[in-house]
User: Fold this.
Amino acid sequence: MDLVFQKGKKDEEQRDRSLLGEKLYPYKAVMCRNCGRIQVTRGEEMFRCRNCGKVCRYRKYGKWNVKLKDFPTFEEAMMEAKRWAMEESKNNSDSYLMKE
Ligand SMILES: [Zn+2]
Assistant:
């Protein structure tokens, strides 16, 4: 049981490391650091929040600066953003999803 868990964790760390060095897929589900809104963006290195207008860089000093999941298509990114927003809204009465 422990071994299986550790293997999964290691795979996740490796994925994070490779993402830091490589180009991301064009569509990203991101969470604004300032207001917490989840939205889909095509920004390559940063995005401007559609809710509060704050610009957040994805990476700072070689580390992740915002929560982000990248996808090759808009549909996949949007599905993840919806799922993510629902997950977040379980702990909060406000919807986190930013509508188009
Ligand atoms: Zn924001």
In short: Residues 2 and 72 are 33 Å apart (CA to CA).
